[in-house]
């Protein structure tokens, strides 16, 4: 039997053979329609081109056996070799786009906004938005009070000292309540300064975030041109109120006088719209002179007993005798109805007395959140207490001079 020469060739070859194929560099010719705008010839070499121009491919023996003898003249074979498949590199998932707050749809001309309040909201929903009763009476009252508290002023800040001739009547508590009620609604910054010449406790009524005091603000005044620099010396309450503490050392606190208060007031003026000052007990110390000279309105704090009310009335008399009669006529009395010795039967008589001398009187009720004597959480106050603080804030803002005054 005659052996096929191809069988001998296949037997003589190894199981696999490596053949180097040198393919010509791919040439890109621009189509006719691109010639007019084609750039100059630029040599570009990509990783794929390099891999194709020179590569080593393992060809099985059976394929080699089918190739004609090299001595014969044959047309150049066209070998189609599939490239190995590469696993696709996973593309990292794009970070989710931040949620965009949906803008409120503009109201159609003549159409009122959706009402607030249980009954108006129910009627509005049941009627498929066809019947709009408007806000309920409590909601209208709340919005009106917010508008009064949020009244804006010009670039000059407004100063409001809180005064008392007797300790223990809740002057610091009233300062905190007033500051929180203002800061919770207003769009500008509100600061409470502890200007007590003795060791004040205003900073103890908020969460402390710094050990700095008004003394540090005085010492670093030339460096505190920007708010970020000043903010490191005050504590920031959740309601939005900022607090500048007094000195904790009674010996050093004596150095905080009218000059020191004026320096602090000048430093904070460019950054705050309203400054409430806890003036300390009494009215004859040096800081009181500086606070009254800058005051746009005053709040006088009285306890609920006859003796405490008498001392508060004497404070008004002292102000009138020292040429501050305009402040007395525009003053608001905060009547703390939770002090020791409060005579509930006499509260109406006390209120009537002060209404005859000042512009308004606000009664501050007992509240466990205030009675603790520690950090005051504005959101934890009883509704009536919070409403009293808001009434006090609105009355104070009502009496502040407007733009250009």
Automatic annotation (TrEMBL):
Lineage runs: Bacteria, Bacillati, Actinomycetota, Actinomycetes, Micrococcales
Q: Tell me, what's a Pfam family for it?
A: CbiA
Residue ranges of the region described as Disordered = 82-116
Gene3D superfamilies attached here?
Answer: P-loop containing nucleotide triphosphate hydrolases (3.40.50.300)
Biological process according to GO:
negative regulation of cell division
| MF (Gene Ontology) | ATP binding; ATP hydrolysis activity
Per its UniProt entry, which superkingdom is the organism in?
Bacteria
InterPro entries attached here?
CobQ/CobB/MinD/ParA_Nub-bd_dom (IPR002586), P-loop_NTPase (IPR027417), ParA/MinD_ATPase (IPR050625)
**Protein name per its UniProtKB record:** CobQ/CobB/MinD/ParA nucleotide binding domain-containing protein
Transmembrane portions of the chain: none
Gene Ontology terms: cellular component: cytoplasmic side of plasma membrane; cytosol
The species this protein was found in: Pseudolysinimonas yzui
Ranges of compositional bias, category Basic residues: 99-111
Residue ranges of domain CobQ/CobB/MinD/ParA nucleotide binding in the record: 162-305
